[in-house]
Amino acid sequence: MMRLKSKLLSLNVDKEVKVKVYTPANCDEVRIPFMVDKVARVVGRLAETSPPIGQDDSRLMDGVLVQNGFKLSMMASDDLREYAGLTTTMVTCKQYITLSTASIDLIRWALESTFGLIEEINSPSSEAVKGSNGDASETQDDSVIKKGEEADEEIPSRELTTYLIMGCVFVKYNPQRREVEVEWEGNMMNDGVADAVMAVLLTVESSPAAVKRSSKNKQCHNHAPPLPSNPHSQLTPDERFMRLCMILEAQFGSEIAAIERPKLKYHGGRKERFPSAAEDASKVDTPDIDEPEDEEELREMEELELARLQSLGIPVPGIEIKVDNHVARVWLETLEVECSYPVLRDRVRVVVERAVETVADMWNTKAGSTMPVKGIPNGSNTIKTEQVV
C-alpha cells in the first residue's frame, strides 16, 4: 500500500491541485462525504401548469414524492394510482351526541359564538313522502293486484338540519331523536376543528351563556320580540380586515399599511413591474409606466379592479408590511406574498395561512351550498369510523 501511495504521488506531482492519497489501516471505518443531485420528474396534474418564471419561489412545488428504485417522481395525491400504482384512503369520522334539552337555535347560536359565520346546507326534499298518508300504490305480480292499506293518521316528517363549519365539519341535527351527528374527513386540521365543535356541543346545555340565552325565549305566546343575531356570525369585510391586521401587527410590529392601488397583471400588452423592497418606500406603490400617455388608461383599469375587489367584499387590494429595510406585500384576493427577502416572505406566508385557517373564510360571506367532494382515484378504499356518546 505504501508503494502504491508513493507511485500515485509521483505521477501527480506536476498537477497544480495537490493530490492527497490516504492509506487507512485494515478494518478501519472510512467515511467519504459526497453530494449527489437528485432529479425528480414531475408528472400528472402538476406537469400541466408550469411554474412562473422570474420569481424567487418559482422552484417551490407542492406534491407527493414517490421513489421507485432509483427513480423519483413528483405528482399530486390524486394521481398516485395512475402513475405510482398506489391507492389512497379517505377516513370519514362520525360522532353522535344526544342533546335532550338544547334546541336547534341554541346549537346554532353556540356554534356561531365560537366559529363565526356557519353555512346552513339545505336538505334534499323527499318527494317520496308526499303520498305517506295512505298512498294507494298498486303492484301487479303474476296477474295479482294488491292495493296498500291507507294509514289512519299521518306522522309529520322532519328534515335534518345540516350546518357546515369552516368548510370541513358537518353538523346534522335530528329533531325527532334529539341527536347531533358530527361528520368530517380525518386529517390533522379537520380533527382539531371537530374537537372544538364537539366541545361546544357537549357544553351547550350547561354553560352559563347558553342557559341565559335559552331562558329569554321561554314565552307562552309568540308576541315576544325576536332575539338579536349573534354578532360573531355577521362580520363585515372591514371587521375581518381589522382582525387580520391585528394578527399581522402582533407578529411584525406596527409598520403595516394598506395598499391603495391594485395589482394589475398586464397594462397595454406589457406586464406591469412592481418596485422591489430595496427601493425607496415612497416609490413602493407607484407602478412603472413606460409612456406617460398611458396614465389615464391605467387609472381606468385600477378603478375597474377596485370595483371588482369591493364587489367580492375585499376592502383594500393588499397590505404592506415593513420590517427593518425589507418590505413584504400581501394581496388579499389570492393571499399571495411578495418580498425580495426569502426569510421574511416565508414568515409572512406562514402567518397569513395560519390566520386564515384559524378563522372562517376571509371574504366569502357564504360558500357553496353543496358538500365539497374531493376526487378519489378509482379503486381507493374508504374507511368510516363511528363513535357514539
Description of the molecule:
Residues 55-362 form the Pre-mRNA 3'-end-processing endonuclease polyadenylation factor C-term domain. It comes from Trichophyton rubrum (strain ATCC MYA-4607 / CBS 118892) (Athlete's foot fungus). Residues 269-286 have a biased composition (Basic and acidic residues). This protein has 389 residues and is an alpha+beta fold. It folds into 3 domains: 2-84, no CATH class; 89-123 and 159-212 and 229-234 and 365-389, TATA-Binding Protein (2-Layer Sandwich); 237-358, no CATH class. 26% of the residues lie in helices and 21% in strands. The protein has 8 helices and 17 strands. The protein has helices at residues 2-11, 80-84, 104-115, 188-202, 208-215, 237-252, 295-311, 342-358, and strands at residues 40-42, 64-68, 71-75, 89-98, 119-121, 138-141, 144-147, 161-165, 169-174, 179-185, 256-259, 266-267, 270-271, 318-323, 326-331, 336-338, 381-388. The strands form 5 sheets. It has a 6-stranded mixed β-sheet, with helices on one face. Strands 11-14-15-16 form a 4-stranded antiparallel β-sheet, covered by helices on one side. Strands 1-3-2 form a 3-stranded mixed β-sheet. Helix 6 (237-252) crosses helix 8 (342-358). It is extended and about 100 Å long. The model is unreliable at 125-146, 219-224, 267-292 and 365-389 (pLDDT under 50).
Strand content: 15-25%
Q: Could you report the average pLDDT, rounded to the nearest whole number?
A: 73
Q: What is the SS-derived class?
A: alpha+beta
Which word captures the global form? extended
* Helical fraction: 25-40%
**Number of separate helices:** 8
Rounded Rg? 32 Å
What pattern of helices and strands is seen along the backbone? HEEEHEHEEEEEEHHHEEEHEEEHE
Biased composition (Basic and acidic residues): 269-286
Region (Disordered): 125-152, 211-234, 269-290
Keywords: mRNA processing, Nucleus
InterPro entries: CPSF73-100_C, MBL
